[in-house]
């Protein structure tokens, strides 16, 4: 017997996934160098910031909570955890993600589209 189709994770309140997705914003973030000062590593990956955002254990946060990291630093972020990563590299990931979102034309378009759907 085949498995049933996968369900999207839903919010208990509204029955809809509240986390926002924007592939164009992720492309914007990926177009920057590694966010760790002085690092020129590649390839660049999009790192979701989980601490203090709408994500959680096993749940990716909305795409506005992302920063650019090289593969090595992205793996390190997951290996040692965000708080230790921020201390080690003197970086505020949540504030940096907010800066990426504010500078992203794609994220601004996404917000306008979401507002129009309300």
From TrEMBL:
The lineage of its organism: Bacteria, Pseudomonadati, Pseudomonadota, Alphaproteobacteria, Rhodospirillales. Residues 1-23 are annotated as: Disordered. This is DUF968 domain-containing protein. Pfam families: DUF968. It comes from Azospirillum cavernae. It comes from the Bacteria.
């Amino acid at each position: 017997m085949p498995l049933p189709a996968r369900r999207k994770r839903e919010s208990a309140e509204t029955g809809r996934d509240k986390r926002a997705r924007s592939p164009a914003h992720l492309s914007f973030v990926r177009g920057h160098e590694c966010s760790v000062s002085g690092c020129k590593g590649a390839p660049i990956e999009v790192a979701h910031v989980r601490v203090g955002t709408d994500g959680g254990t096993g749940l990716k946060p909305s795409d506005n909570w992302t920063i650019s990291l090289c593969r090595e630093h992205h793996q390190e972020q997951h290996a040692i955890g965000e708080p230790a990563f921020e201390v080690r590299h003197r970086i505020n990931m949540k504030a940096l993600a907010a800066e990426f979102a504010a500078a992203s034309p794609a994220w601004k378009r996404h917000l306008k589209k979401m507002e129009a759907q309300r």
